[in-house]
Write a structure and sequence with these properties.
By secondary structure, this protein is mainly α. Helix 4 runs antiparallel to helix 5 (93-104). It is 78% helix and 0% strand. It starts with a helix and ends in an 11-residue tail after the last helix. The protein is globular. It has one domain (33-170, 214-318).
Length: 329
């Protein structure tokens, strides 16, 4: 399956580039001057900073007040790991747990619980947006009706997973440890699964405690997720405006939805999928292929630059700290 994707996506990218006027792509990108690039970079830094808001609220509710700027750097490092590895939705979470334990002496189960809750809230809101976005895509006719309906159903199904997990944990269930214990029963010669199940149980107990004692943290976490989406949409609108084709609200949601769907493909950085998705969505909305590829190239360069910076930050932060971080309960 994955090999098929690796083979198909370059073909999709080649199809997107068929008959393209490279000079027009350059002219589209040439609209970006130094001032526009600097502003877009600053806005993107603001978007990254909003990602830490939900995590900061969760940790603060549990008694750990980590400097916000540090958490933003941890999230940037985690983004980089996820971006450059095949599972673009996941990958950097172990680094987040490691950094909390290494630099702030937070117990591993508590650190894990904070990261799991952070990601569950993020995925709930993200897939909620995708479900809404697919409704917009269906209305605008970006994809064929059958494909749009299938994608909308898939987005709703994906929304159920993190939302259902949160509800189950808040009710005192332990779905993660239960699943691991069942796997351990099937694989008796894998003692590491037993250890993982016990670790998952401790983390889910922390999650349940936080959900019962600090329900406002979850509410504020959802608010922070909403703020992140406002920032993301603002950044995309500003980028398209600078590139010469500002999108109205519905088209903006449709294009961002298409780009997010591309990142569900298990390919590092959604290479090929992002470009093909933007070409498909924007040309369906009446824009030129060159404009779509200009936007895709801008997004690709932006993500690679910030991803490379995140790898450097992650390497620096993962080194043993030179003293007590001073954080704690």
């Amino acid at each position: 399956m994955r090999i098929g994707l690796w083979l198909a996506l370059p073909l999709a990218l080649a199809f997107a580039l068929r008959g393209v006027n490279l000079g027009e792509i350059g002219a589209t990108l040439g609209r970006l001057g130094a001032a526009q690039i600097a502003l877009l970079a600053a806005v993107n830094l603001g978007v990254i900073a909003t990602f830490a808001g939900r995590w900061w609220v969760i940790l603060a509710a549990d008694g750990y007040r980590i400097p916000y700027g540090m958490l933003a750097l941890y999230r940037l490092a985690a983004f980089s790991v996820s971006y450059f590895t095949p599972g673009t939705q996941f990958g950097g979470e172990p680094l987040q747990v490691y950094l909390l334990g290494r630099r702030h002496a937070i117990p591993v189960s508590t650190a894990t619980a904070s990261v799991v809750l952070d990601r569950a809230l993020e995925l709930t809101v993200n897939f909620g947006f995708l479900a809404l976005g697919m409704g917009v895509v269906l209305r605008l006719g970006v994809y064929p009706p059958g494909a749009s309906t299938l994608l909308a159903a898939a987005a709703v199904a994906l929304l159920v997973v993190p939302a259902g997990y949160l509800i189950a944990v808040a009710a005192g269930r332990r779905p993660g440890s239960w699943l691991l214990s069942r796997i351990a029963a099937w694989l008796p010669r894998a003692p590491w699964i037993d250890r993982a199940a016990r670790f998952s149980e401790a983390a889910e107990d922390d999650l349940n405690r936080l959900a019962r004692r600090r329900p406002r943290a979850i509410v504020w976490g959802l608010v922070a997720s909403g703020a992140s989406w406002v920032a993301i949409l603002a950044e995309w609108w500003l980028a398209t405006a600078y590139l010469g084709f500002p999108l109205d609200s519905l088209r903006l949601i449709a294009v961002v939805t298409a780009s997010r769907l591309a990142f569900l493909v298990p390919i590092p950085g959604a290479l090929g999928a992002l470009e093909a998705s933007l070409v498909l969505s924007l040309t369906a909305l009446g824009y030129r292929t060159e404009q779509a590829l200009g936007l895709a190239l801008f997004v690709r360069v932006r993500d690679v630059v910030f991803g490379a910076a995140g790898l450097w930050v992650g390497g620096a932060l993962a080194a043993p700290p030179k003293g007590d971080s001073g954080a704690g309960r």
